[in-house]
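Troubleshooting log. The previous run stalled partway through. Resubmitting the same two chains, unchanged.
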Amino acid sequence: VTKRKAAAEGPAGEPAGGEKSPLVLIVDDVQDNRTIYVLFLKFSGFRIAEAENGEEALRQAQALLPNIIVMDLSLPVMDGWEATRRLKRNPRTRGIPIIVLTGHALPEHAQAAREAGCDLVITKPCLPDQLLDAIRRILDASKPQPKSGR
Amino acid sequence: MVIANERAERLFATREDESEGRRRAVAINNMLFSSALGRSSVEPLTPAPRELALVDPTEGSDLLFELMSATAGDARMGMGILSILRNVSDLRRATEEIQENYQKLRAAEGEVRAERDRLDLVIDSVADPILVTDASGNLVMMNTPAERLFSVSADASLAEVQRVQANDANFTSFVSNLLFGKAGESKYQGGINLVDPKTGHTIPVEAVSGNIYGEAAEVSAIVTILHDRTEAIEREQLYEQLKAASAQLERRVQEATSTLVHQNEQLRRQAIELEQVSVAKSQFLANVSHDVRTPLNAILGYTSLLLRGVSGSLAPPQRESLARVDANARHLLTLINEILDISRIEAGKMPLRLSSIKLSELIDEIMTEVEPLITRSKLVVTASTPPGLPLIRSDRQKLKQILLNLLTNALKFTHRGSVTVSCAHQRPSREIAIAVADTGIGIAEADQARIFEAFSQADPASTRETGGTGLGLAICRRLATVLGGRITVESKLRQGSTFTLIIPLGLKRP
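Second attempt completed without errors. Output:
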């Protein structure tokens, strides 16, 4: 099902009208994961920023104010739960939606992430277009303007 | 009366001036005397004295005389009787006293004899043998029970005689302890073994000897009482046996108790260890699950990128191979998820989320999800719920997982014919039975119990053919248990299978 859908949409370029495409901050300590999502999201027309740990994620979020953050949970220096908690406590970054993307499959892990304040939990493995769907759904919901990027 | 001396006159003569009483007493005396003499006129006179009671005329008291009469002849005076009276009143009194004393003595003697008879009777009536020995150790008395041990009858056999002799020797030796033992000891107690002369059986006896002292504090006799201890010994033995048995029992109880305590302790330790192992296992599996997901995410991700043409277009054979990589990676993912499910159920970490479920809606939802499989299978697939089926209170997600699994299996293992889903409300037990029946390959009876075990399919080769993991039914059964229910199977090889999930209508929180 996913394959057909993805194939139907095809690669997406910069949105028309010169409007800046949404900025996605990808936070993951595994290079491969970042590469996959970065490649696919860029391919799908998003701007991307990357961070390898929670602390870096906080810095990047403060500096860049991304449209959405994709957060892994098991991270060095500061883990994803703590980073999520801090981002949601900070008035500057509170409004940024956070998708938690984790390899932890137990319900208690997802529950802890929800309690930290994230907007969605997706258990890995998460296919690139599955993530794309989630990002689009959340961005559409948080941007009620009739004229969106699509 | 011809001549009387003065003393006789006092008895037999009166004067005019004397009192009436005295005159009457004298008259009585004369009468008595005449009568005595008269008797002697009948009987020939003998020189032997006769008694004659007279009255003292002065005192009025009784007097006793000895009368001796003799006939005297005188040619001048003719025949006469000479009588001499000897006052024996005092003598008589003395004699009577002696008599009285004698009688008293006799009476006393009789009493003593009676007393001794009574004593003998008492002694004889004592069941224990009693023997009395004199100061030199000779037997002087024994009661009837003692006679049975220490005396022989005339017709006794040689053996009896020897046994009595043995008893005698034993007894003498015992008594000599007191006779020749420590001075001042007045009692001696001990056990001796005697034999029954008649039977030869040993009679264990407790003997108690005591000295009887004479007036000069010398030992005059020794009394020995023998008490048969056979019964006492038997009782003692019985008591000892009882005590031993009781002790043994107690020991056994203690042993059993200590074993139990030990076993309990072991069980407790094992339970703790098991709990630790279980926690460690869950943790391990959670970690493995996470760590396996990371590379799997990369494999699926990169494959997806390639298939999506993010890195350029692919030639059809490349695309085909990549599709195989993708399918296998997905299979691996299913396996990992199911292993995680099983370990979570087994670790009791599958929390229940109860809600009210309309079964017809749930089944519609499941049918929609397997629609692609149904379309591909070309089977006649029907699902029906009877009208008026009550709402079920259970865990919707787990119930769905079970039914989805059963239905998917039915579709996988049925190549022609039909798959039918049906429900029934079992009112008496307040349960709902949901049956998934197929006309598929079926399961041999021997394999029917095994299919619910983890990593077990009736035919291992079918894992490859059907793309299953072999964990589906194991998870279903565990989930059914979590839901308070069970899964049963009825199947015939090459004819089909019916899997039935039975769950309570209203599941309560554990």
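Takeaways: Chain A is about 45% helix and 15% strand. The longest strand of chain A covers residues 23-27.
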